[in-house]
Amino acid sequence: MELKHAEIKSFGKLCDRSFDFSGGINVVCGDNESGKSTLFAFIKYIFWGLDSKERGLYLNFDNGYIAGSLDFCDEGNNIKIIRRSAPSKDTNNGDGAYSETLQVINVDTNELIKMKNPGEHYFGIGEELFYKTACVGQLGTSELSGKSINEAIENIALSASEDTNVKRAKNKLDAARKVLKLKKGVGGAIPETEAQRQTLLEELTFAEEKNVERQTVESRLCKLQKTKDANDGVIEKISLILDIAEKKRELEQQKKKCEYEKGLNEAKAEYQTAVSEITKDGFMPDAEYIKSLAEKKRDYENASRNYDEIRKEYSSAKDEYDADKENFAQKYGAFGKSENVDYDGIAREESKSKVFLGTVIGFAILTAIMLCLSIVFVPSFVKFRMPIVICLAISALALFVSAIFFIRAKAKIKDTLGGFDAKNSEQLKDTAQKMAAAKSNLEIKKRNADRLSERAEEKRQLLEDLRVDIRVALAKWGVRENITPTVIEETYKRAETLNSRVYDAAAKIDKYNTALSGIPQKSDLTPEQLEKIIAEGEEKLDSEYKGSSDAELKAKLAVYVGENEKINAEINECNSSLAVLNAVAKSPAEISESIYRTDKKLADYTMKLDAIAIADDAIEKAGINLRKNISPMLLEKSGEYLSSLTDGKYAVLSLGEDGTILYKDGAFDGMRSIEYLSAGTKDSVYISLRMALIDVLYQKSKPMLMFDESFARMDEKRLSYMLLLLDKIKDKKQSFVFTCHKRESEICKERIGGCEIIDMTE
């Protein structure tokens, strides 16, 4: 097979890159992380694909897929393989699933070739064998595929695989044989299993004896279980009826609850309406405010009434005082200065007037007598005429003088009493006393009127204060009208009415909340769901119990539950007995099953022992066959390659009796173990064997040789021999050398023509 061209759309860090290959040596060079190993992996991907771990390593996160193509020539046919892998968009594939497309095209005929695995189709081997033969890794490490280089060389020579050690395999088979059956049949897995089988047979005999007792207990347990199941059926029926009755009660409660909730919502709406109506200026009168308003209204009414009463009383007292004052002025107006009257002088004048009156009367009587005497005696008694006339004249004169004094006294008294409308001093004094009493009474009435006026002013001020207080209280609720009893009354009644509506709505809310709290929330089922459950349950009801009351059903239920409790106790006794029997002896079926498994295990052990013997014999025969047929051919071809790599110094390889690889050293007689070779020469032996192994194993197309940093420990001389050998076999095998050094490309340019130098750093 010859690779010609690679087109990489997206593979790891390589995107939109193309590479042309030579049929001979292709040196892929570049610094670390330049993409050499990625190109190596891409070639392997085209033929065998990638596993899930590798896809994660080479999936390009910028475009989200892996894709590319490879052109090659196989047995004269030009073939093109196109592969593409991407995360699957089909959600049924699960997370991490990939969709992959593969096309294999015959370029000459443009024919699409159907195949699943191009690598196995064209090379006749799997990916793992290809990697272990045609791909040579870095040889400068202490281990190679987990084995030392010497062990790998011996394994290739003895088993055609660097991972298979014939001697180690035979040792493992011998160790496995000892595990199964030691010498003399003591201590191995087979004797131990045979002893277990004998123990199980003894246990089976004992268990069969105990099984009779177990069957008796199980029969009783079965009868008890049947009775319990029958009782459970009755309990289930009765419980269903009781549950339906309970569901019906719950349905009624749910309906009531719905009604209460509806009423509650209406009450809340009513409450909100009442609150919005009663609230003014952000203030809502409460009971305390209304009570305070009522008290203020009552106080205002009382104060107003008291004010009106005191005003009436004051007006009456003032009117009475004014009337008495006018009467007093009219009646005792002349006595306005009565306090300056000389009552004693008036009395003396009255006494004088009386004396004068008495004198006047006396002299009048005397004059009358004298007159009479004069009339009687004068004519008769002349001698008495003069005395009598003189006496008469004196008496008349005295009468006249007395009359003048009397008249003057009366005039003086009259002048004095004339302003008082009194006839005499006694009357004047009595009138003065009456005036003093009337004046005192008038003063009392005046003081009473003044006191009532002061009280009226106090009541007026109190009324005004109450009016201000009420105005403030009403203004708090937005009422700013003139404060009158009517306004206060209307405001109070309106507040009381609205507050009563709020209180009534709140009372309704409390009533509905109380009613709702009294309804237990047994479940979250709606009335419709409850009705459906009731309807479904009534279809299952047994007519035998439909007419029974809840009390009767509960009594029956208690009977069956009690009976089941007794049955459960008996079942527990039976289970305890079974537990004891099971603890004493296992069931025969279980022991028989164990015997069967033991027999099977024994047969497996025996078969494994036979297989070990067959495998041991096969390995022995295969080793003989390898040593006789394949190993000589492999060593012969590898010797040819080794001769080219060492310039003829080491040309013969053979296999020792103990399986070690021997070589012919021209400087010494006889064969020597490769343990004496240098590390670089061992690498040459290893590469020779790998190349020879390809010639022996690959029956179809010979694969391209892939060397990944495999020549690091070779000096320039050995490296030149290696590259010349690859150029020599280029007609049979195409080779790829992946390296981060410049030696390979420089040697190829100087000494070998037709090489393809691929610089990954460009």
Radius of gyration: 75 Å
Helix-and-strand structural type: alpha/beta
The side-by-side strand order for the widest beta sheet comes to: 2-1-4-5-6-7
Question: What's the tally of helices?
Answer: 18
- Could you tell me how far the N terminus lies from the C terminus, measured between alpha carbons in angstroms? 28 Å
Could you say which overall geometry the principal axes of the C-alpha atoms support? elongated
Helix content percent band = 55-70%
| Largest sheet entry | 6 strands, antiparallel
Report the uncertain regions: 141-147
Q: Care to count the β-strands?
A: 14
Estimate the mean pLDDT confidence.
77
In what range is the share of β-strand residues?
Answer: 5-15%
Give your account of this protein's structure.
- With 762 residues, this protein is an alpha/beta fold.
- The protein has 18 helices and 14 strands.
- The chain has a 6-stranded antiparallel β-sheet, with helices on one face. The protein has a 5-stranded parallel β-sheet with strand order 8-12-13-3-14, with helices on both faces. A 3-stranded antiparallel β-sheet has the order 9-10-11.
- A hairpin with a 5-residue loop joins strand 9 and strand 10 (661-664).
- The model is unreliable at 141-147 (pLDDT under 50).
Topology:
Layout: E1 2-11, E2 14-20, E3 25-29, H1 36-48, H2 52-58, E4 66-74, E5 77-87, E6 98-106, E7 111-113, H3 118-123, H4 127-133, E8 135-136, H5 149-159, H6 166-180, H7 189-278, H8 287-332, H9 343-380, H10 385-418, H11 425-476, H12 485-517, H13 527-540, H14 550-584, H15 588-645, E9 653-655, E10 661-664, E11 671-673, H16 679-697, E12 705-708, H17 716-728, E13 735-739, H18 743-751, E14 756-759
Parallel strand pairs: 3-13, 3-14, 8-12, 12-13
Antiparallel strand pairs: 1-2, 1-4, 4-5, 5-6, 6-7, 9-10, 10-11
